[in-house]
Amino acid sequence: MTSLAVDCLLTDDQVADFVISGYHIVKPSFSPEFHSNVYSKLQSLSMNPGDEINKAVPALDQIYAHPSVVGALTSLLGDAYVMAAHRHCHRNHPGTRSQMWHQDNLNIPMLIDGHGRVPDHVRSVLVMYYPQDVEANMGPTALIPGSHLFTSSPDRNASQGNFRDQMIATLDAGSLLILHYDIWHAGTANTSDKVRYMVKYLFERSSEPEDPSWNHDPLQDTRILDRLEKDEAAALQRSLISKRNYLRTKMWNNLAGSAQLKYEYKDKWAGAWPQPVK
Amino acid sequence: MAVKQRLLYLSTQSTDPRSPAISQALHDPVKGTIVEIDPTLGSLDYESVHDAICDGWRVVHFPDQRGALTDSDVEVIGFQFILEKMEQFDD
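The joint structure predicted for all components is written out below.
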């Protein structure tokens, strides 16, 4: 890893944000012309190259090798992460309708281990690159923050429509959306007159952490533990809250290796009596 | 014009009809339409099932009162109520 990428490692709070919400946004510093050239190249392709999209548009590999991307991926997957063979370019034409909420497929044979849902670790991430501005009417990616901790029921998702706390990824050209592999997401309708591209790469962890691979400060541990217990990502039924908090802490600890959070019992009830109701 | 059934699926934080709504899907009786995720949605149409009832919707399906199954292999976010409203629609 270059010193530039070391400077781009995530902070404790950014890693906690990812554990809590399941996504992180990076915007590498390329010129607007760079991204418009990628867009033009994608527009010129006569067919979908599938996994070979990086050979058809070599500039894509530059984006994924940018220090800000390498720093974020190293923080989440360790410094020996690998690029999976599967890539995909989504061409979203005007008039494309909304997808249903889904988790990506588990059975892509070229992925390293075939994948199972991993709600307590970060073993794989999706990295979505958008070469153009994505306005709300251009089919932005939608996701449900925090849903990566749960296994969805596709049959039931079909009837859920809009979530109160859904996140709509309206982004500037050149932004990358890094997602936990298991997050519930969907492409939305493109009601504009513009083609919207999204290029998806997958990256995978190749070794288990011995230490945090991000810019870790152990003095933040108590505060981070508090965030993992209390921060809201999206509204859930109460019966899932304890499972959510357990998975968050386990995910952090699986990422942190030897620097695991230590739960210490605190008597939070001792103190002043409640005041009489007026 | 004909009276037709509109369906509103509301998922809520508990089985209490006054609990906050988490998600909604509105099915109007118009051929060719689908429920789409709306990127411009500011908020859900109703804060709760009770809020929708006050606006004339009628519950036709209540969620299972036993609550969530904690050892289930899959999770469903929210308890789903299905409501209907009969309204005039063009054929």
